[in-house]
Amino acid sequence: MVGNWFHQAANFATTWLPLAFFGILVITAYLLWKTVGMMPRIRPTHMDAGAKSQVTWSDVAGVEEVRAELMEVVDFLKDPKRYHRLGAKVPKGLLLYGPPGTGKTLLAKAVANESGAHFYSASASSFVEMFAGLGAARIRKLFLEARKNAPAIVFIDELDAVGAQRTGHGFNREQDQTLNQLLVELDGFEGAEQVVVMGASNRIQDLDPALLRPGRFDRQMLVPPPDLAGREAILGVHTRSKPLAADVDLKQVARQTSGLTGAELANICNEAAIFAGRRREAYVTRPDFDNAIERVVAGLQQKKVLTDKERRILAYHEGGHALMAHLMGQVSELQKVTIVSRGEALGYTLHLPEEDRYLHTKEELVDWMVVTLAGRAAEEVVFGRVTNGAANDLEKVTSIARSMVFEWGMAESVTSRTMRADNYALSEETKRLRDSEQSLLTDGAYTEALRLLKKHRVPLDRIASALLEKETLVRDEVMAILSDVEPESSASETVGVPRVVAARAD
Ligand code: ADP
Ligand code: MG
Ligand code: ZN
């Protein structure tokens, strides 16, 4: 009996154990294979495979210029033949850039929806943590699908994640591969194909320049933070479905939220509704909005919401630049003046195009310095002291003054030779002379700015209060405000006007 039992058991073991062992092996191998095969799917890529978005133009407010430009793209995707017949080259690579929360992703979704095109989107930030080669493969697949299903839009959000400049640390091979694949795809299709590539980025200055070359993301559109009217419109969008009490004035809310983006305004509207709900109210009231603003602003750490005093200073600073541009006969080159801050630096942008420099006379350059210093001068004239808001202006003026003295022979005492250090060894004496010549130029320009602003104090007040009221003034508005003010300088009427491309807080 015992032997028989033992025999049976042994028999069982020799027959089944190897089989069971083999089975476990097969199952393990299968599971392993499956896990590896699944890996790419572990991290989602937010790819909407040709899905249609629900966002419409009416959901986007306060960014009219960009919206108008994007409507053209939509128009093209709807009726490309009309453009081809006219021989028009079609926009291919569009880049939306601007601070986070200004509505870039929202705009892309609206384009997708309104054009009726297939929309392929991926967030580049999701590629970053992927396994080697996977980001590149995703990009390839994205474009393949889009081409197959044209007309289509490929939207790559958060482009900074793969498009950051290949400098220093933080850049790895994976990002490199992904970026290269993206460049290949951008180059690899003709305008005749009805595929438009859109990208979005928070920091265009950090993007790899290869991405911005002609034929790639060569149409770049700034999506700025909204101005007063823009904020009011955005608040309108986000309170559309919320019952508001009679005491709520969206214009007033817009005034209290200078510097905030669309995303933050949307957040405020939502918080206000939550406050009202908590009180079991049927309507959202003005105190709800006040509480919501307080909460949202407190939650933004580095973000600066300007106080009334700061807004006034900024209005005079920017107004000073604009008035001076007019006095120096350069206002035709001014596109707009704004006190809406962009990023951390407040200030005004004057461009002196590099390639035109040799055309400038000394007088023009001095005028340009006067305009650039007029922001700080206005602060001094009006408030009796200056802020650190002019650092950028000072830098620019210093660098022009240095070039004038060192390179262009425009110093008062040394006019016939340059004083470049690499030309010959400078004596201590020459160095000192050079420095004092440079200060002579900049101090002279600043004194002139002070004098002119004191003389034209009334129009300065006018333009500052217009800025406080509207936050952004376009050129025609500036000209209307200053129509009775005669320009002071005629230097810039000659060749090569130093161009004031835009006056803006940037
Ligand atoms: P970005 O991509 O520029 O960082 P988003 O498009 O993701 O910003 O904006 C986030 C949210 O903020 C949007 O879904 C929308 O609710 C709101 N928002 C931002 N900008 C606007 C705008 N211009 N108009 C209306 N809503 C906006
Ligand atoms: Mg976005
Ligand atoms: Zn300035």
Q: What is the class of the largest domain in the CATH system?
A: Mainly Alpha
User: What compounds sit in this structure?
Assistant: adenosine-5'-diphosphate, magnesium ion, zinc ion
The CATH architecture assignment of the largest domain turns out to be Up-down Bundle
- Average pLDDT metric: 78
Return residue spans where pLDDT drops below 50 for at least 5 consecutive residues: 35-50, 343-358, 492-506
Number of domains: 3
Say what oligomer this is: single chain
Helix and strand succession? HHHEHEHEHHEHEHHHHHEHHHHEH
List how many beta strands DSSP finds.
7
Using the alpha-carbon principal axes, give the shape.
extended
Give helix % range: 40-55%
Q: SS-based structural class? A: alpha/beta
**Total helix count?**
18
Binned strand content = 5-15%
What is the secondary structure topology, with strand pairs?
Layout: H1 2-42, H2 64-78, H3 80-85, E1 93-97, H4 104-115, E2 118-123, H5 134-148, E3 152-157, H6 160-163, H7 173-187, E4 195-201, H8 209-212, E5 219-222, H9 228-238, H10 250-255, H11 262-278, H12 286-299, H13 308-327, E6 336-338, H14 362-383, H15 391-406, H16 428-455, H17 457-470, E7 472-474, H18 475-481
Parallel strand pairs: 1-4, 1-5, 2-3, 3-4
Antiparallel strand pairs: 6-7
